[in-house]
């Protein structure tokens, strides 16, 4: 088996590994993915070692203990040969036989102890490396454009962060010491066997070489099916997550059968693929296993003939056969390792794909905004081939309330994301305080902008902890003041433990309006000079909507407010309203001026007013 070491070009985040990613060592295939054909055991091991290089001393001790344990495991076989040789002699030395037996028992104990130490050390290294990888990847996701997480399946990212790194534990905690022992120990043993009798050693290694060659061919041919298997597994995880998250919607529309049909299709595809893979690999796999474990097939009969002819002594033959038997057990472990190595190759490729994701460029020299103004200068932006904004220009002065309205998909939310630099513009510039956001370091930019998302995300902690995301060092009084400003204090006080109530996943147990008000409280606590509200009242009930609007009006004093609004009556007092349609500015002005202009805004206003009138009339008839 080859054990080449690769070069170095692509760097894993923050120096966790400086080795070149496995995928970078090969050319793209027809699908645009980089082929991993020709990746050797040595390259995989070197790559895994690169991930654990911060703890290379502990790793080296683990490999040394595993190798020593593998060598000691040969002694019981040698003890049997020595015992038989002594028993067949004319005058057996029973003291020597007892010594051999005690030595064999001591060797078994030492082997188990050394293997336990090796496993303990390798697991300590693996667990620490897994922790580092997850931290590094979480920091990496914070530096890539938000569009990356929008384009990638959430299930795929979750699979990499949780499942893939968990499976890497097998490579780091088991494969590195196991492969080292399965390569180093047999090499040392083989050298000893050649020293005992080179003729017997040659006869022994012939089937092993044939089996190793066949096994190497299987590994190369199995790389593409392994990639397909990993991709299918990821699809299964994503589909299962979609079923779990969409279960209420599916049940509400009585579409259980239709929703599960897709899952059944993916599961059936996995079954067909697995069966085909097994049928394809069973013959060469069995042949490789037979050859790797049949090293005594040649050396046994040949050794007996050589002993009968006087070419080798009986004692030498017995010792050689005993060591050869144990050597086969050592080397046969490679067969079980091969499939696990191929899985590690695919996981490392997926891990590198996330680690090498393009980050938002950091400014060479960070500047400071002069004030809280926000301006767009001929900004254009596209999601892939779909153009979302074309030549958008406007300026919001400090302390102004600026509203963005327009049909769905016109680019309102995209403008809000560009303010906080969730993406970089394709053309033009976005400026805060006269400074291009690309010239602000992330910490400075995040201090300038607070964001209230339409889709609120709450963590599984206390209410107070969720509000403190706005400012981690805020006191209890400051948290309460922010909640009062967001009209959230009253309902929080009614919770079982008030501000110390632990929320379920994503704020389970709270209404949409309550989650939204906690999100507004975060923004109030952050006290940033620029506040972006992406339909902040989307889930507010009519009773609290006016109160939230009052809170926002008070918050606007001295701050720049950018409001994305679908309910036009919530922005009638905005200093300026920008009307977008298909990514372009079609109207701008104050509410009264836009209504009298009889343009797109006037039509939207009329439609909403008619809907409100109809709704009120319906409520009166029902009452």
SS-based class: alpha/beta
**Total domains:** 2
Termini separation (Å)? 83 Å
Give the biggest beta sheet: 6 strands, mixed
CATH hierarchy class name of the largest domain: Mainly Alpha
| Overall spatial form | elongated
Q: Provide the CATH architecture of the largest domain.
A: Up-down Bundle
Unreliable stretches: 1-38
Strand content: 5-15%
- Quantity of strands, as a count: 10
Mean pLDDT across all amino acids: 76
**SS field, number of helical segments:** 21
Compute the gyration radius: what is it?
34 Å
**CATH-assigned fold name of the largest domain:** ABC transporter transmembrane region fold
Question: Within the largest sheet, what's the order of strands?
Answer: 6-7-8-3-9-10
Helix content: 55-70%
- The CATH superfamily label of the largest domain reads ABC transporter type 1, transmembrane domain
Provide a short characterization of the protein structure:
With 623 residues, this protein is of the alpha/beta class. It has 21 helices and 10 strands.
Write the layout of secondary structure elements.
Blueprint: H1 41-51, H2 56-72, H3 75-87, H4 94-143, H5 146-151, H6 154-196, H7 198-221, H8 223-245, H9 247-252, H10 256-292, H11 296-308, H12 314-355, E1 374-383, E2 386-396, E3 401-405, H13 412-419, E4 427-432, E5 435-436, H14 442-448, E6 449-452, H15 463-467, H16 476-485, H17 489-493, H18 512-526, E7 530-534, H19 542-555, E8 560-564, E9 576-581, E10 584-589, H20 591-596, H21 600-622
Parallel strand pairs: 3-8, 3-9, 6-7, 7-8
Antiparallel strand pairs: 1-2, 1-4, 4-5, 9-10
């Amino acid at each position: 088996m080859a054990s080449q070491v690769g070069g170095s070009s692509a760097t894993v985040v923050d120096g966790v590994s400086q080795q070149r990613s496995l995928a970078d060592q090969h050319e793209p295939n027809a699908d645009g993915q980089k082929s991993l054909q020709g990746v050797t055991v040595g390259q995989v091991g070197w790559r895994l070692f690169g991930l654990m290089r911060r703890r290379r001393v502990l790793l080296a001790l683990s490999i040394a203990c595993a190798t020593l344990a593998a060598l000691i495991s040969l002694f019981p076989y040698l003890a049997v040969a020595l015992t038989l040789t002594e028993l067949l002699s004319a005058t057996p030395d029973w003291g020597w036989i007892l010594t051999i037996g005690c030595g064999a028992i001591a060797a078994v104990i030492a082997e188990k102890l050394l293997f336990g130490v090796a496993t303990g050390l390798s697991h300590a290294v693996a667990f620490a490396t897994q922790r580092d990888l997850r931290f590094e990847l979480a920091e990496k996701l914070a530096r890539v454009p938000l569009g990356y997480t929008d384009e990638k399946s959430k299930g795929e990212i979750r699979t990499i962060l949780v499942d893939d790194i968990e499976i890497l534990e097998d490579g780091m905690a088991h494969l590195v010491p196991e492969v080292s022992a399965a390569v180093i120990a047999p090499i040392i043993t083989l050298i000893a066997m050649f020293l005992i009798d080179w003729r017997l050693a040659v006869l022994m290694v012939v089937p092993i070489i044939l089996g190793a060659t066949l096994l190497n061919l299987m590994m190369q041919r199995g790389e593409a099916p392994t990639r397909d298997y990993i991709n299918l597994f990821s699809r299964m995880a994503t589909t299962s997550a979609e079923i779990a998250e969409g279960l209420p919607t599916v049940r509400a529309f009585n579409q259980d059968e239709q929703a599960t049909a897709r899952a059944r299709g993916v599961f059936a595809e996995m079954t067909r693929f697995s069966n085909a893979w097994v049928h394809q690999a069973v013959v060469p796999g069995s042949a490789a296993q037979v050859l790797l474990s049949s090293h005594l097939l040649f050396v046994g009969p040949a050794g007996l003939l050589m002993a009968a002819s006087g070419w080798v002594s009986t004692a030498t033959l017995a010792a050689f056969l005993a060591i050869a038997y144990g050597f086969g057990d050592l080397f046969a472990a490679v067969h079980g390792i091969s499939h696990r190595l191929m899985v590690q190759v695919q996981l490392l490729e997926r891990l590198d794909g996330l680690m090498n994701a393009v980050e938002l460029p950091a400014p060479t020299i960070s500047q400071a905004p002069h004030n809280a103004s926000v301006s767009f200068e001929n900004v254009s932006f596209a999601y892939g081939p779909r153009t979302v904004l074309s030549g958008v220009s406007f300026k919001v002065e400090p302390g102004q309330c600026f509203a963005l309205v327009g049909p769905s998909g016109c680019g309102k939310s995209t403008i809000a994301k560009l303010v906080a630099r969730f993406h970089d513009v394709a053309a033009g510039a976005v400026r805060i305080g006269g400074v291009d956001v690309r010239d602000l370091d992330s910490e400075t930019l995040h201090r300038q902008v607070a964001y209230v998302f339409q889709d609120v995300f709450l963590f599984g902690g206390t209410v107070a902890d969720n509000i403190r995301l706005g400012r981690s060092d805020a006191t209890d009084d400051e948290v309460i003041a922010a909640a009062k400003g967001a009209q959230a204090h009253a309902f929080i006080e009614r919770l079982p433990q008030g501000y110390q109530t632990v929320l379920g996943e994503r704020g389970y147990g709270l209404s949409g309006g309550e989650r939204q008000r906690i999100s507004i409280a975060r923004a109030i606590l952050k006290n940033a000079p620029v506040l972006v509200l992406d339909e902040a009242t989307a889930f507010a009930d009519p009773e609290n909507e006016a109160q939230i609007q009052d809170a926002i009006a008070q918050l606007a004093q001295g701050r720049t407010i950018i409001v994305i609004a679908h309910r036009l009556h919530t922005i009638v007092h905005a200093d300026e309203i920008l009307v977008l349609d298909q990514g372009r500015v079609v109207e701008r002005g104050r509410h009264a001026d836009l209504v009298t202009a009889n343009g797109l805004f006037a039509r939207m206003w009329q439609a909403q007013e008619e809907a409100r009138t109809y709704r009120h009339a319906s409520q009166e008839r029902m009452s």
